[in-house]
Amino acid sequence: MTVDWLAKAVPQTAALYPYVPGKPIEVLLREKGLSRAVKLASNENPYGPSPKAVRAMQQAAAGVHLYPDGDAGALKRALADFHMVEEERIIVGNGSNEVLELLIRTFAGVGDEVVYSQRGFIVYALAAQAAGATGVAVAEADGLSHDLDAMLQAVNERTRVVCIANPNNPTGTLHGVAALQSFLDALPRDLLVIIDEAYYEFVATELGDTVALLQHPGLVISRTFSKAYGLAGCRIGYAIADAGIAALVNRFRAPFNVSLLAQAAAVAALDDGEWMAARVADTLAERDRMERALQALGLSEGHSHGNFVLLRHGDSAQIAAALENRGIIPRPLAPYGMAEYLRISVGTAEENDLFLAALTEIVDGMA
Ligand SMILES: *Cc1c(COP(=O)(O)O)cnc(C)c1O
Which parts of the sequence carry N6-(pyridoxal phosphate)lysine (predicted)? Predict the structure, then answer.
């Protein structure tokens, strides 16, 4: 007997689709029979984590027969000290992705609305749907940048959560602190606003301090160790929120949601800010070089504030396929309704050289 499991699942399942991640290197190697591939699809740190984080994991490895600290006390204390906030205000998760999902699940359900930007990070839409809430996607005025005024207009009495990615993935756009402050000032103080700062470390210098915005009680700032800190494979992210919000999210959190290795790695990585800052500087220099090269090819679109660049071409699918044939994995943006775009993560100088050489060859061949 074949069971129609969809008929048994919660109603919102029908409209859900799984998050589409970047293609893993092993898959491309197998598909194409290649010996080397470069993944520029998931905005990972190509240099890896701080060696101190690797050592901390090695030391912790012998203890993984025991559950980790379920409250992630050492990590929360380290984050609280780092940000000069009370420990009760820190939420940690299996990637900031889990923190975002927990926040949305805690505050939005059937009949509630979650407001985000149409080309904002796709996880907000997926999390809202999974929670049974109604996603409200607000169009960008210029095709790339969150339209904060239009987002304010979209807020009504059914709105429970507003999500902003700053810088945004995949568009790379950034709003300054003054614009964010005016946005918050125009909203009720008890409305949950998430500012997702997964790429904060790449804009720290130009954006300045955003933690001060937390004077607004409904604001939650989320960050991750996956990007600048190079710990994507550990799955560890966090948020700073009002202590009351953090306490409620804890009720939805699974026990031991952050692994022992992830906790150890994150504490050590946070402590090695110098190493992280040097890798960020390398990445920013490479990003600017890539944007100039794309400009010279007539394929550049906007300016990215993240560790990735945007490529725009009428036949981007053909370019993506040709790049994969040459062992380079880009990220097509069709799931964002941006079929003409590819997102390319900034790799090491050598990886970027390989990408730019392949791209030049492909574009020359298309002309
Ligand atoms: C990568 C990313 C995240 C999620 O990262 P985690 O690995 O789950 O911490 C969150 N928001 C944005 C905008 C991202 O690009």
Answer: 227
Ligand 1 midpoint to CA 164 (Å): 12
Nearest Cα residue to atom 12 of ligand 1: 198
Q: Is the CB of 121 under 6 A from ligand 1?
A: yes
DSSP 121: -
Q: Confirm or reject: Cβ of 41 under 6 Å from ligand 1.
A: no
How does pLDDT run across 158-216, given as a tens digit for each residue? 999 999 999 999 999 999 999 999 999 999 999 999 999 999 999 999 999 999 999 99
Give residue 1's pLDDT.
Answer: 77
| Beta-ladder partners of 224 | 237
Q: Which two tokens mark 72?
A: 């992630």
Helix (H) or strand (E) holding 62: none
Nearest-angstrom CA–CA distance, 27 and 279: 28
pLDDT digits (tens, 9 = 90+) for 133-169: 999 999 998 999 999 999 999 999 999 999 999 999 9
Mean pLDDT of 55-59: 98
Backbone phi, psi, residue 182, to 5°: -65, -40
Domain match, 282 and 356 both: yes
Question: Which of 272, 294, 329 marks a domain boundary?
Answer: 272
Q: Which of 98, 123, 225, 257 to mutate to test ligand 1, by most ligand atoms within 8 A of the CB atom?
A: 123
As for how many domains the chain has, the answer is 2
Nearest protein Cα to ligand 1, atom 15: 169
Judge if 186 and 83 occupy the same domain. Answer: yes
Ligand 1 contact via 222 beta carbon (within 6 Å): no
**pLDDT digit string (tens) for 251-261?**
989 889 999 99
**Beta-ladder partners of 267:** none
What domain range is 74 assigned to?
A: 51-272
- Do residues 42 and 180 both lie within one domain? no
Asked if 166 and 208 sit in the same domain, the reply is yes
Give the global pTM: 0.96
Locate the ligand 1 atom nearest the alpha carbon of residue 170 and give its number: 15
Gap from CA of 115 to ligand 1 centroid (Å): 18
Alpha-carbon torsion (53, 55, 61, 63), positive or negative: negative
What is the distance in A from the centroid of ligand 1 to the CA of 72?
A: 20
Listed residues 256, 272, 288: the one ending a domain:
272
Rounded to 5 degrees, what angle do the CA atoms 107, 113, 114 make?
A: 70
